[in-house]
Amino acid sequence: MVRKYFGTDGIRGTVNKGYMRPNVALRVGLAAGKVFKRSDRRGDHVHRVVIGKDTRRSGYMFEPALAAGFVGAGMDVIMTGPMPTPAIAMLVKSLRADLGVMISASHNPHYDNGIKFFGPDGFKLTDEQELEIEHYIDHGNGDVLVQSEALGGATQLESARGRYVEFAKATVPAGVRFEGLKVVVDCANGAAYKVAPDVLWELGADVVAMGVSPNGYNINDGCGSTQPEAMCERVVQTGANLGIALDGDADRLILCDEKGKIIDGDQIMALIARNWHKRGILKGGGLVATVMSNLGLERLLQGEGLALERTQVGDRYVVERMRKTGINVGGEQSGHIVLSDFCTTGDGLVSALQVITELIQSDATASEACKQFEPVPQILKNVRYDGGDPLAAEKVQASIKDAEAKLDGSGRLVIRKSGTEPVVRVMAEGDDADQINALVDGICSEIEVAA
Description:
By secondary structure, the chain is α/β, with parallel strands linked by helices. The chain has four domains: about 10-160, 3-Layer(aba) Sandwich (Alpha-D-Glucose-1,6-Bisphosphate, Chain A, domain 3), CATH 3.40.120; about 165-245, Alpha-D-Glucose-1,6-Bisphosphate, Chain A, domain 3; about 265-370, Alpha-D-Glucose-1,6-Bisphosphate, subunit A, domain 3 (Alpha-D-Glucose-1,6-Bisphosphate, Chain A, domain 3, 3-Layer(aba) Sandwich), CATH 3.40.120.10; about 380-450, 2-Layer Sandwich (TATA-Binding Protein), CATH 3.30.310. It is built from 14 helices and 18 strands. A six-stranded mixed sheet has the order 1-5-4-2-3-6, sandwiched between helices. The protein has a five-stranded mixed sheet with strand order 8-7-9-10-11, sandwiched between helices. Helix 1 (about 20-35) runs parallel beside helix 2 (about 60-70) and helix 13 packs antiparallel against helix 14.
């Protein structure tokens, strides 16, 4: 069954259009409250939902709308204010809540927003749970409303920031301190604008903070993990040892070394997995990544006797595979890194702390430690479309088949529609850079005609 409201990472769209309107958010709160009021709880249990948000101005609109829905469904609402997405996943478990909600559109501009959920175990919802919520959004009517004496309440969790700061610090091995390291951290004017600099400073680092002045509209604007150029420049200017760029909700990161060179998620996963393997703490004999991860990563792991498990794009699918295989390192090239020994979802700050730990323990520079493999030439281009399915066009399919035949045995081709915006992503990789450029351009041209 096709989901109507949910995409690959919750419900997302342009503010005050489509499903991202306050009246819809109210219905979402009512529906999710109906589904996650646990029937197995007895006695004086109070049903709880934790709601966090990033720094978008529209969060002030969606937060009360969702809260009203949950209260109307009979759940107590605990609001955290601006907090990273992984903090909400952590707090759901810590507070023994029934549900966690994060109001964010991640790396998207301020005019988008989204609603994503975490179950009582801190993991993102299954397709079946999302479908059940969708059913009550459209067909709940009076079934989701409780009597007035059963209404929930709402409170602000003043300790949320401190709880997450201590959680993040606890992921660093005992005795490891960051003294002597200068670290630039770009918080994207987003959810981690307070907690990320605090954690790094409390661990001993000399912190140069960027993107820590949110105004509701500047989230991800010329900063953060999708636009890390300013962070790279600041690293070189200040003589820092490492740069960390988070996205708007801090569930992903991109790093740069002391020379200002970008370190993507594939290199980060390789560094952590190989070092954990040497220390005997890597589980499952490999790591989990998506179809977008570079072929060079796969070749590196094979040389170490480790496996690369590939999934479709989306950190929720990475986590699902990790849980099935017992692997404790996974993620995406884009910087969603999931370390299941610590987290149930991607955590940009915690991942950065593990990289810094490896630098300290190996006494290596970032440029030395983080260049784990030579990437195979890889080209990714996006083609925006207005509606329909441009991939169904006959000429588009013919172009794809021709490219697959030419790459047979020497590279990979991945073509998919984004689950969060109306674009088709075309990626090819192989040892011949000129060839893959030509193949991607040819497919994109056909998609543009069909779109």
